[in-house]
Amino acid sequence: MRKVLAGPAVLAAMSIAVAGSSLAAAAAWAKPADAVAEGGRIVGYHGYRVTVPASWQVVDLTADPQACVRFDRPTVYLGHPGDQSACPADLVGRTAALVIEPMDAVSAARLTPQTAVTAPGTAVAAGAASRDDAIQVAVRGAGVLVTAAHTPDTEDAVRRILGSAKLGRDARPAADSLLTTAASTRTATGAAPLAAAGPQPGVYTGKGFDTCAAPSQSTMNAWRNSSPYRAIGIYISGGSRSCSQPNLTANWVTNQTNNGWRLIPIELGRQAPCGTRLPKMSADPATARSQGATAANSAVSAAQALGIPAGSAIYNDIEHYPSNASCKDAVLSYLSGWTLQLHARGYLSGMYSSGSSGITDVCSAYHDSRYTRLDHLWIAWWNGVADTDGGPYCDDAFYTNHRRLHQYAGEVQETWGGVQINIDRNYLDVSTTVSEEPPPTSWSAVVDNTTAGGFTASANWGTSAFSAQRYGADYRFADPVAASDPAWFRVNIPQTASYEVAIWYPANAGYNNATPFIVATTGGNQSVTVDQRVNGGQWISLGVFTLAAGDGDKVGVSRWTTGTGYVVADAVRFTRV
């Protein structure tokens, strides 16, 4: 979701350099007698032979199964894509690429009603349809499935490449039974579709992540069992997507939601007219509004094909742009068309953008009747704090009542259950119910360890002013021990409701790496473990909890931990949400 720009329009001029990929210096299947036009090269796979510009890279996925299949660089990929966990999280935009894989049960599952099937004895399917800026051809004579990604600017060149295809003497047709089964799958209308377990992301408060390509089932299982995340962003539509999505099927959606994952469906298509990314929306507001409606219809079709039902929110990803008055008008008009058409189709509208461009523009027009409000706002502000604060970019009074997502860190590598993925970190507070009612009366209180009547601790807790990251004059500390001796922060809660609880502590390498914080909720004590060796000197959200009205101990810092180093009690902030 971030930095890579779409490539130039002239395909022949494209340059490439994919780090860490397996390259074929010359097409291994091309015969010396094959004549290639100047500036071109023949690439062959399973008897399917196609001519591409000489500058294109070739990646053998059998030799390099972990390679990221990415469409922002002109490349031919040979073989089945792997689990795609190595894809960078920040890819945006596409140029052109081909994926040529064997026609078998794996690839047959990716066929769609738009997949063209060649006639026997030919490698070309004339008039093949493009869907979401990709053309898919099942070449029965060679037993391969070809997916050709493109942009509006590169579509003609990609079609010329597909039109150059020939069958070699080593071509072996796909099994009739496989093609028959695949055709039945593509044309079946009576079967009940697979479906997500309710609207997505639904009603959810907590952490999530997004990444360029939907991970494999085994990766999702490993992260479900060990990570703090329960929501994942998935790119379902849009011609600006950089990554192949070999894992993203209706079956994948059903499996994840049945396992408790919440999905954040993303459309990555047209970008701001004043920006550098392609393709762009029109600078004319009326045309941009129409383009937004078209994007909504495409996104709904993709959502329905994946079993993501009405009532779900779909988020339009508009990357950072150098805003001005006319560009802002175009973007907000585009989002108005997007929102109105999603509503007409029974879906909620969302938008992702950077705080300093799209979010600022949307929030500054919150009361502007010329534009239709979004339902959800996804704020990219990498401040490292897991909450839904919009900082200087969006007033706290806007998009309240469970209508916000916050991407608080980006381009990080995390490993859970032994599996590493490149991700962006998010915090969600969302609902399927969109209310324009004013938020409850705001209330916030900070309790320091020196607040009169607000803090209690035994004599085992010492006092220190050692760290400059402290809140207030000093803080309290104690050795870990296998006994109940917590320090408590006390506050008078005005009304039983939802409150965000945030903590402040100084970080130090000698402090505890697994400090338990106990939150006294209406449903009983809940424990949140915090590594006090990092992220000090700022408010760190423990989450949103239902707290009972009245005066009492609400947050405790426990000494009973398996970690090592001092446990620290400094300050707690309570904020009604």
UniProtKB/TrEMBL annotation:
Residues 1-19 form the signal peptide. The keyword Signal applies. The keyword Signal applies. It comes from the Bacteria. Keywords: Signal. Residues 221-427 form the Rv2525c-like glycoside hydrolase-like domain. Pfam families: Golvesin_C, Rv2525c_GlyHyd-like. Residues 446-576 form the Golvesin/Xly CBD-like domain. This is DUF1906 domain-containing protein. It comes from Catellatospora coxensis. The lineage of its organism: Bacteria, Bacillati, Actinomycetota, Actinomycetes, Micromonosporales.
